[in-house]
């Protein structure tokens, strides 16, 4: 059964955040809220976590996982960003955008797109997620919690607990979440290519 954490949306309880971070470090797969919608998350190097996310979502090896980063400095450790791309990404973070960029050697090979050697990165504008990332001290490997054959992700922590009770180890609930995933922008070739139109305003990249 998944452990259930009821976390205040504006003032996350430090004890709860610490317990969630400890669970991630010990190999747990969590469902947690972001500024777009719920996501599945695990420790960066967790092979088991990656396999479980793929299993829950029925993903193939071409899926871009996302590194949920605390800030731009942390993001820069895991992807290569030239000056023009730097300005565009910096101006859009934190926010509901995922950027696909060439990965550095800090990113485990299993997370990379098999041909492009790229990875998705983003900086969330969400109090609870930011508190968790600060406590972890490293990115959270993530993927949108969108279940197979469903058009929208679940929005309530209790609903996720009910449906995925034996597939995830913990559910973080800080109130109702959105249903629109991030806008995905591919900068892997230096030019902005909109891969998915979502919660983030696309006009700045068109």
Number of strands: 10
Strand order of the largest sheet: 1-8-2-3-7-4-6-5-9-10
Termini distance? 45 Å
Alpha carbon gyration radius: 16 Å
Query: Low-confidence stretches at least 5 residues in length (pLDDT < 50)?
Result: none
Structural class: alpha/beta
User: What's the helical proportion of residues?
Assistant: 25-40%
The averaged pLDDT comes out at 94
Work out the strand percent: 15-25%
Shape: globular
Order of helices and strands: EHEEHEHHEEHEHEEE
How many DSSP helices? 6
Profile the largest sheet.
10 strands, mixed
Describe it for me?
- Helix content is 27%, strand content 21%.
- The chain has 206 residues and is an alpha/beta fold.
- A 10-stranded mixed β-sheet has the order 1-8-2-3-7-4-6-5-9-10, with helices on both faces.
- The longest helix has 12 residues, at 14-25.
- The mean pLDDT is 94.
Strand-helix topology:
Blueprint: E1 3-6, H1 14-25, E2 30-32, E3 39-43, H2 47-57, E4 66-68, H3 72-78, H4 83-91, E5 97-102, E6 118-122, H5 127-136, E7 140-144, H6 157-163, E8 170-173, E9 183-186, E10 193-196
Parallel strand pairs: 1-8, 2-8, 4-6, 5-9
Antiparallel strand pairs: 2-3, 3-7, 4-7, 5-6, 9-10
Helix pairs in contact: 1-5
């Amino acid at each position: 059964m998944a452990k259930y954490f009821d976390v205040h949306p504006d003032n996350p309880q430090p004890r709860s955040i610490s317990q969630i971070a400890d669970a991630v470090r010990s190999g747990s797969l969590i469902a947690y809220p972001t500024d777009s919608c719920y996501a599945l998350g695990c420790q960066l190097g967790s092979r088991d976590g990656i396999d479980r996310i793929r299993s829950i979502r029925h993903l193939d090896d071409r899926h871009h996982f996302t590194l949920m980063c605390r800030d731009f400095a942390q993001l820069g450790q895991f992807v290569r960003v030239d000056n023009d791309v730097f300005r565009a990404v910096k101006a859009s973070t934190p926010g509901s955008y995922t950027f696909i960029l060439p990965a550095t050697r800090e990113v485990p090979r299993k997370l990379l797109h098999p041909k492009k050697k790229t990875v998705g990165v983003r900086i969330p504008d969400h109090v609870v997620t930011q508190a968790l990332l600060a406590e972890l001290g490293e990115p959270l490997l993530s993927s949108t919690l969108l279940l197979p054959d469903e058009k929208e992700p679940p929005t309530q922590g209790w609903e996720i607990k009910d449906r995925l009770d034996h597939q995830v180890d913990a559910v973080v609930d800080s109130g109702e979440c959105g249903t629109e995933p991030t806008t995905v922008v591919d900068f892997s070739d230096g030019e902005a290519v909109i891969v998915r139109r979502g919660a983030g305003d696309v006009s700045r990249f068109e």
